[in-house]
Write a structure and sequence with these properties.
Elements: E1 10-12, H1 13-18, H2 20-25, E2 31-36, E3 39-45, H3 47-62, E4 93-94, H4 105-111, H5 122-135, E5 138-139, H6 141-164
Parallel strand pairs: 1-2
Antiparallel strand pairs: 2-3, 4-5
Length: 184
């Protein structure tokens, strides 16, 4: 079961490891984001909040309310040739060469659970636009931004993984315990 919630209370991993119960009790909400190098590594919730979330899910299931039942709008909408990049685009539109994400794109991406270290680069944006112009799909402005954020997250993480691999290196397991885990 997947739950999404907005968490405004946070602490570092080092402080959380020292006294997790105290850190959680000091949070304003009943949830806490744990950061390492200013990047969320995990989220912690109280049993009370977890109980509330499960109760809401049970209520939705009982009333047969599922987000998957909401039907999307048809994709066959005539393309608008208005390329103005206003803050709020009205209606769905095809991707075009003048499209740009909002100026607070990185902040919005973090609200969607996608942690971008820096804003979109020109080459990344051009590549994204060229791909989706050829696809000919219609989406709302916010949906295009979410697609761009997911695309950037995937591309940037694959670059890191690709650079760290060495096919000639023999892997040796280590016996270190990661931060946040306790020894038996």
């Amino acid at each position: 079961m997947v739950f999404k919630t907005l968490v405004s209370s946070f602490t570092t991993l080092d402080l959380f490891v020292k006294d997790p119960l105290k850190a959680l009790s000091l949070s304003k909400e009943e949830a806490l984001a744990i950061l390492k190098n200013d990047i969320p590594v995990m989220y912690v919730v109280t049993p009370n909040l977890l109980k509330k979330l499960f109760a809401m899910t049970a209520h939705f299931k009982k009333n047969n309310f599922y987000l998957s039942e909401i039907k999307p709008l048809p994709q066959k909408i005539k393309a608008k040739q208005n390329y103005s990049n206003t803050k709020l685009q009205n209606g769905k539109f095809l991707m075009h060469h003048k499209w740009k994400p909002d100026c607070d794109f990185v902040r919005q991406a973090s609200l969607w659970g996608i942690n971008l270290t820096h804003s979109v680069e020109k080459e990344e944006l051009v590549s994204f636009i060229d791909y989706w112009k050829a696809e000919g799909r219609f989406f709302y402005h916010i949906q295009w931004q979410q697609k761009l954020a997911r695309n950037l997250e995937q591309r940037r993480s694959s670059k890191i993984i690709r650079n760290n691999r060495d096919i000639n290196k023999i892997s040796i397991p280590d016996n270190t315990i990661p931060d946040g885990f306790r020894d038996k």
